[in-house]
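Bumping my old thread because nobody answered last time. Still need a sequence for this structure:
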């Protein structure tokens, strides 16, 4: 378990071959602030330095000595589990997106923003004093199960090859994408202290937490936006049990937590450790087939080193660096 690992690792000499021989998936903890691509570059640079590579440049796409990528982008303003593929494990990142994700989202009633989260500009303010906890919990039932959802304008979805978020930043007119089916497995209200509220969310691929909070505000005859967002689970990886903190970004820790993906299995199903959280529940966490485009995020611009631009929002796109 990542959370129980020692924060110090014994130095490993001549470990570049060991690092390059790794093939599989592991999870790291992304802090609020940097983009997912920046976090991946920092991780890669740290590992290459440990392996003895002088002046590594993780953003360089050519002549890279280490293949690494992440699946399911998180916005700069979000934190939590970020799944990383190393070596042939990068081929499994799309499959990872087929599993369910869990989030803890803090929302704020009474204010709407253009990005649907706290990073944007306030576009509307409405009264929220009429909303009670029972009103809120009753309305959550309408957003559970198979629902239709309109993706945010500020997202990594594309039009004519350009990301909508980039088009908006350039001042171009952008029309909302049509509503699409998404799945919400569980949705509960953990705290209600107006104007703030806290939601626990378990959803499938293609889901946007920002859209959920925006739609909830409207359904309650007010408005709302996401104030804080943390991903606590992606597929079989959880924040508490598997995500390596920055001080644990060493070859030793990665080797101890790596979920190997055997090259002998072309279908790409990774070996998984038992996940007690999924027992007796019908959720897709262990289904590495029929991958979907994932969930919330995707406003951040494309970073250097990503040879496959994200196709959705933050939680559903892959970035692979060679």
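Sorry it took so long. Here it is:
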């Amino acid at each position: 378990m990542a959370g129980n690992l020692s924060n110090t690792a014994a130095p490993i000499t001549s470990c570049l071959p060991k690092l390059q021989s790794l093939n599989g998936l592991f999870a790291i903890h992304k802090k609020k602030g940097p983009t997912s691509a920046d976090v991946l570059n920092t991780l890669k640079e740290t590992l290459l330095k440990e392996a003895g590579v002088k002046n590594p440049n993780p953003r360089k796409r050519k002549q890279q000595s280490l293949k690494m990528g992440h699946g399911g982008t998180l916005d700069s303003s979000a934190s939590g589990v970020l799944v990383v593929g190393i070596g042939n494990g990068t081929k499994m990142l799309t499959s990872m997106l087929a599993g369910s994700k869990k989030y803890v989202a803090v929302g704020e009633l009474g204010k709407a923003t253009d990005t649907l989260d706290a990073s944007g500009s306030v576009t509307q303010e409405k009264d929220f004093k009429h909303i009670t906890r029972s009103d809120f919990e009753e309305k959550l039932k309408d957003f559970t199960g198979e629902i239709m959802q309109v993706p945010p304008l500020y997202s990594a979805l594309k039009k004519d090859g350009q990301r909508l978020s980039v088009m908006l930043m350039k001042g171009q007119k952008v029309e909302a994408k049509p509503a699409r089916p998404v799945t919400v497995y569980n949705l509960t209200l953990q705290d209600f202290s107006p104007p703030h509220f806290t939601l626990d969310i378990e959803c499938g691929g293609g889901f946007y937490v920002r859209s959920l909070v925006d739609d909830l505000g409207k359904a309650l005859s007010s408005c709302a936006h996401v104030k804080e967002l943390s991903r606590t689970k992606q597929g079989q990886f959880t924040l508490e049990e598997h995500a390596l903190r920055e001080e644990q970004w060493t070859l030793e820790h990665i080797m101890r937590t790596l979920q190997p993906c055997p090259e002998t299995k072309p279908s790409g199903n990774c070996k998984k450790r038992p996940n007690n959280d999924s027992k007796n529940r019908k959720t897709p966490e262990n289904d590495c087939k029929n991958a979907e485009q994932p969930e919330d995020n995707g406003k951040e611009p494309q970073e250097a080193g990503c040879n496959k631009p994200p196709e959705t929002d933050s939680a559903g796109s892959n970035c692979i660096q060679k």
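The two ends are 28 Å apart (CA to CA). Let me know if any region looks off to you.
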